[in-house]
Amino acid sequence: MPRGALIVLEGLDRSGKSTQVSRLVSRLNAAGHRARLQKFPDRTTPIGGMIDAYLRSASELDDRAVHLLFSANRWECHAAIERDLAQGVTVVVDRYAFSGIAFSAAKGLDFTYCLSPDTGLPLPDATLYLTLSPETASRRGAYGAERYENVDTQTAVRAQFAKVAEEVGRRHGDARWVEVSAEGSVEEVERDIWGVVEDVVRRVGDEPVGRLWE
Ligand code: Z5A
Ligand code: MG
Q: What's this protein's family per the entry (predicted)?
């Protein structure tokens, strides 16, 4: 049986990731693929509950402890992801290890340190990075009330995502990181994402799942 593809959407706040992952899963299913959504952080698990409290500023945690919790949240979900991929289900992921690195490195943690806890996670077949200018982001409404939802953090995170993109290209090849402009309408962005994903889903069937940073 051909395996499913692991597709990740990344991007800054309000770039439309959650909007687009839902549409992508529906579109894959409509096209006859089996597909499901996975969001990180997954706030429904016990570890996800700790992350949720931290993001809502209901708790304070050391930066390293939070970084490891975000990674642990991915590790507690990896077996289910791998099982689904093996059974031919495409998994569409809303944020992944790349957000983990970008947000923690933006706080000043060492970049190489930030990569390490996610080493060995399933490697996305494609990561679509939704790009958005600060001007367009500000037109999409005020920032929310959660930690990190402010201009200074988002600017620092943007710079770290550029380093993450370079690292993915260097370790796994440029084809795995695809920038998609999120400036257009929801339908235009959806069409551009589909243009990339359709091909990836068809192509990866016989390839083994790779390992992140290995
Ligand atoms: N974080 C971390 O530190 N470490 C980690 O390892 C991970 C995450 C995984 C919570 O994430 C925080 O956790 C996040 C990073 C950190 N902090 N920040 N920032 P989250 O994923 O739960 O965050 P969120 O609450 O889902 O928000 P978001 O992801 O920033 O938004 P989005 O998913 O990209 O956007 P959206 O919800 O789809 O759309 C936003 C609005 O824009 C909405 O009103 C839409 O209707 C509108 N929209 C969407 N697309 C368009 C277009 N094309 N045109 C016009 N309007 C649009
Ligand atoms: Mg979202």
A: Belongs to the thymidylate kinase family.
In a domain? residue 190: yes
99 lines ligand 1 (CB under 6 A): yes
Residue 210 lies in a domain: no
Find the ligand nearest to 41 CA: 1
The answer as to whether 1 is a domain residue is: no
137: left (phi over 0), alpha (psi -120 to 50) or beta: alpha
Q: Residue 39: helix, strand or coil by DSSP? A: strand
Regarding the beta carbon of 15 and ligand 1, being less than 6 Å apart is answered yes
CATH value at residue 33: 3.40.50.300
Strand positions, DSSP E, 27-159: 34-39, 89-94, 126-131
17-29 pLDDT, tens digit each: 999 999 999 999 9
Q: Which of 18, 62, 133, 185 gets mutated to test ligand 1 (max ligand atoms within 8 A of its CB)?
A: 18
Residue 46, domain extent:
6-203
Structural domains of the chain, count: 1
